[in-house]
Design goal:
Strand order of the largest sheet: 1-7-8-10-9-3
Distance between the termini: 29 Å
Strand content: 5-15%
Largest sheet: 6 strands, antiparallel
Length: 487
C-alpha cells in the first residue's frame, strides 16, 4: 500500500542495496488497532515529517510499517554477536525492521527502524512483538539521553498496536519507531567476517566509513583509521555514561554501534546510590555489565571488532594482530582522558588545576560516596551550592562528615565554578521509581505520567519549582530495582 501525504517521504534503501547479504526483505505484522502513545514532534520536524500527519490514520500505518512509500524496501538486518561473552553466529532483527534511510531537509541520512513489528526469520523462538512498557521505556530514556547531550538513537514515536502480547502476563502491544545514524554494529562486522566473504567484509567497512567516519577514507590505512574512529567514539560515549551514572545493562557486541550512539534501552537504568557493582538487569547474574565494568566491557567488545577486521588491517594475520593490538591499546588512554575531563567538569575545576591535583581529589571522593550509599546525581548537583558557600545539601547526603568537610575544604580551595557545574550536573534524570510508575500507568491506559516525565527530562539542567519529586531519589520502600529486556 502506498502513502501519499502532503509532503514527500524520502525513504531510501542504501543498506539493502549495498549489503544485500545482510538484508532480508520483510513486512511488518498487522496492527489491529493502532493508537499513538508518544511522539517527538521536534524530531519529526527535523526529519521533514509533519507531526499532524503522523498522528493521522495513514501516519500511524506508516509508523507501524504497514504503509510505506512504494520505493521503500523494508528489511530485517542480519548480524552476529557476543552475548554475555558467548558468541552467537546468527542474531539479526528478530522483531524489528529497517524501513529505510530518511534524508532530512537539512542534509544527512538516518535510519528509520521499527522495534516490535513482528516475527522475522531471525526471531529465534520469540514472538516478534513488544509490549507498551518496554517501548515507552526506550522513548523516555532516549529523550533523557539526548537532552543530556549523550549520543543516542532516538524515539520518533511509540504506537500501540491493539494486539495483546503474552509475557508473564498478557500485556498491550506496541511498536517503537526508532531513528539512528545507522544500525551498524560490531556484530554486523562479526557476521561479515564469519561468512568468509572478504568482499562483503570490505563492503561493510566501506559502508561504515561513508556513513560515519568519512575522514578514514583519506587515511593512509583507511580500515585501521575506521577501527580507531570507532574506538574513540566508544571511549567518549562510555565516559559520558559513567559521568551521569547510566547503566546500559546489556553491552553485547550486537548492541555496540559503529557510530558511537547508545542503542537498545532494554534492561537499562540510572544508578542512584554510588556503587561500581550496581547491576539492574535480571539476566546479568554475574554482574558482567555492572556500572563499574562498562569501560572494561567496551574494550572487550572492541577487541572482538578488531578480530573481525583483521583481514582488512593486513594480508598477514600476525601483522594484523600486531596492528590491532597496538590500536586497541589506545582505548584506555582515551577513555581515561574522557572520563577525567567529565569529572573535572562535574567538579567545576578551572583549567589551570593540574591533573596531578585533580586526580587525588577524585580518588578520595569515590570511597566517601560508596561507603555512605550517596546518591550520585543529587551529590554532584548539590556541590554547586557548596561552591557558593552552602554545603548543607551535600552534607545531608554523606555519613562521614569529618572526611567530607576535609574533602570540601581541599576542593573549594581550587575555586570551583558553580555556574559551570550547573551546566554539567543534571537536576533530573530518569529516576527508576518514576519510570516504573509512569510505565505502569501507561500500561493501564494512562499516558499522563509518561508525558509529564518526558517534559521534565527534556530540560535536565534547569531546576524548576514544583518538580522536586522528579529530582529526589527513590523512597526507601521502593527496594532493590530489577529491569527486564522485554522479550
Amino acid at each position: 500500500m502506498s502513502v501519499t501525504p502532503d509532503f514527500r517521504i524520502d525513504l531510501r534503501h542504501r543498506f539493502a542495496d549495498e549489503l544485500p547479504e545482510l538484508a532480508l526483505p520483510w513486512q511488518a505484522a498487522e496492527a489491529p488497532a493502532p493508537r499513538l502513545l508518544a511522539i517527538d514532534e521536534a524530531l519529526a520536524v527535523d526529519l521533514g515529517l509533519d507531526p499532524r500527519w503522523l498522528r493521522s490514520e495513514d501516519g500511524l500505518r506508516f509508523l507501524t510499517g504497514l504503509a510505506v512509500p512504494e520505493a521503500a524496501r523494508p528489511v530485517a538486518q542480519a548480524y552476529a554477536g557476543h552475548q554475555f561473552g558467548g558468541y552467537s553466529p546468527r542474531l539479526g532483527d528478530g522483531r524489528a525492521l529497517l524501513l529505510g534511510e530518511l534524508c532530512a531537509p537539512e542534509g544527512g541520512m538516518v535510519d528509520l527502524h521499527l522495534k516490535g513489528s513482528g516475527r522475522t526469520p531471525f526471531a529465534r523462538g520469540g514472538d516478534g512483538f513488544a509490549a507498551v512498557g518496554p517501548m515507552l521505556r526506550e522513548h523516555v530514556v532516549s529523550v533523557a539521553m539526548h537532552a543530556l547531550g549523550i549520543p543516542t538513537t532516538r524515539s520518533l514515536a511509540v504506537v500501540g498496536t491493539g494486539r495483546t502480547v503474552r509475557r508473564e502476563t498478557p500485556l498491550p502491544g506496541a511498536v517503537l519507531a526508532r531513528v539512528a545514524s545507522s544500525h551498524l554494529r560490531v556484530g554486523t562486522v562479526q557476521l561479515a567476517r564469519a561468512t568468509g566473504d572478504a568482499d562483503l567484509l570490505r563492503r561493510v567497512a566501506d559502508h561504515a566509513i561513508d556513513r560515519h567516519h568519512p575522514a578514514a577514507r583519506d587515511a593512509e590505512a583507511p580500515y585501521l583509521a575506521l577501527f580507531e574512529a570507532v574506538r574513540d567514539v566508544q571511549a567518549a560515549l562510555v565516559a559520558q555514561w559513567m559521568a551521569v551514572g547510566f547503566v546500559h545493562g546489556v553491552m553485547n557486541t550486537d548492541n555496540m554501534t559503529l557510530s558511537g550512539e547508545t542503542i537498545d534501552y532494554g534492561p537499562c537504568a540510572f544508578m542512584e546510590a554510588f556503587d561500581p557493582a550496581t547491576v539492574f538487569s535480571s539476566i546479568d547474574e554475574g554482574g558482567r555489565y555492572a556500572y563499574g565494568n562498562q569501560p572494561i566491557v567496551a574494550e572487550w567488545n572492541l577487541a572482538r571488532l578488531a578480530e573481525a577486521m583483521l583481514p582488512l588491517l593486513a594480508e598477514d594475520q600476525e601483522a594484523g594482530i600486531e596492528i590491532a593490538t597496538e590500536a586497541l591499546g589506545g582505548f584506555r588512554e582515551r577513555y581515561g582522558a574522557a572520563f577525567a575531563s567529565r569529572l573535572r567538569a562535574k567538579l567545576g575545576l578551572p583549567a589551570d588545576v593540574s591533573d596531578e591535583v585533580a586526580a587525588p581529589l577524585v580518588d578520595d571522593l569515590f570511597p566517601l560516596l560508596q561507603s555512605g550509599h550517596v546518591d550520585w546525581t543529587s551529590f554532584f548537583r548539590g556541590l554547586s551550592s557548596a561552591a557558593r558557600g552552602d554545603a548543607e545539601p551535600v552534607r545531608g547526603l554523606v555519613l562521614d562528615l569529618p572526611a567530607l568537610d576535609a574533602w570540601l575544604d581541599r576542593w573549594r580551595g581550587l575555586d570551583p565554578d558553580p555556574d559551570a557545574m550547573d551546566r554539567t550536573n543534571p537536576v533530573y534524570v530518569p529516576r527508576n521509581h518514576l519510570v516504573e510508575e509512569a510505565l505502569d500507568a501507561a500500561t493501564a491506559g494512562d499516558l499522563g505520567p509518561v508525558e509529564r516525565l518526558v517534559e521534565v527530562l527534556r530540560a535536565p539542567y534547569d531546576e524548576r519549582p514544583g518538580l522536586e519529586r522528579y529530582a529526589a531519589p527513590a523512597p526507601p520502600d521502593f527496594g532493590s530495582y530489577t529491569t527486564f529486556c522485554g522479550t
